[in-house]
């Protein structure tokens, strides 16, 4: 069973969103997603200043099994990409909700359509 922290919001495409104290959002992939991908060998993070629309691909995570796009849950501007992932992509595997965050975003509007932890768990259950 995947680890699904109750204080985060989720997308059906397996991203998580944390609201930071300054109103910015931290985004990464869920424990379920990293587990499905396996050991990550490369993470392409976005550059600061890039404007993104909800649903855009903003990063690529590559494992020994596959490469997968990561999608923006909320429109906004990239404040920071997690530079540590260039030399330590495995942080996404070992700390998906901590040091494995992928980007920080200044949202251009209020997040909508995100799932609670219980709703995300129901989504995973339905996916089988």
Notes on the protein architecture:
It is built from 3 helices and 9 strands, in the order E-E-E-H-E-E-E-E-E-H-E-H. The strands form 2 sheets. Strands 1-2-3-9-8-5 form a 6-stranded antiparallel sheet. It has a 3-stranded antiparallel sheet with strand order 4-6-7, with no helix packed on it. Helix content is 17%, strand content 33%. The chain has a single domain (10-114), classed as OB fold (Dihydrolipoamide Acetyltransferase, E2P), CATH 2.40.50. It has helices spanning 31-37, 91-94, 117-127; strands spanning 9-10, 15-19, 25-29, 40-44, 51-52, 57-63, 67-71, 76-81, 103-107. A hairpin with a 3-residue loop joins strand 6 and strand 7. The mean pLDDT is 95. The N and C termini lie close together (12 Å). The protein is α+β, with helices and mostly antiparallel strands. The radius of gyration is 13 Å and the shape is globular.
Task: Indicate the topology.
Elements: E1 9-10, E2 15-19, E3 25-29, H1 31-37, E4 40-44, E5 51-52, E6 57-63, E7 67-71, E8 76-81, H2 91-94, E9 103-107, H3 117-127
Antiparallel strand pairs: 1-2, 2-3, 3-9, 4-6, 5-8, 6-7, 8-9
Radius of gyration: 13 Å
Strand content: 25-35%
The helix content is: 10-25%
Name of the top-level CATH class: Mainly Beta
CATH topology: OB fold (Dihydrolipoamide Acetyltransferase, E2P)
User: Mean pLDDT, nearest integer?
Assistant: 95
Terminus-to-terminus distance: 12 Å
Write out key terms for the chains shown.
about 130 residues; alpha+beta; OB fold (Dihydrolipoamide Acetyltransferase, E2P); six-stranded antiparallel beta sheet; three-stranded antiparallel beta sheet; 3 helices; about 35% strand
């Amino acid at each position: 069973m995947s680890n699904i922290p109750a204080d985060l919001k989720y997308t059906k495409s397996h991203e998580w969103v944390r609201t930071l104290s300054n109103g910015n959002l931290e985004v990464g992939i869920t424990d379920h997603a990293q587990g499905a991908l396996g050991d990550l060998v490369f993470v392409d993070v976005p550059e600061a200043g890039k404007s993104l629309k909800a649903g855009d691909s903003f990063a690529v995570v590559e494992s020994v099994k596959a490469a997968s796009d990561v999608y923006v849950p909320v429109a906004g501007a990239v404040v920071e990409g997690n530079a540590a992932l260039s030399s330590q992509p495995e942080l996404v595997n070992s700390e998906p909700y901590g040091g494995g965050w992928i980007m920080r975003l200044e949202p251009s509007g209020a997040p909508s359509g995100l799932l609670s932890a219980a709703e995300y768990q129901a989504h995973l259950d339905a996916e089988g």
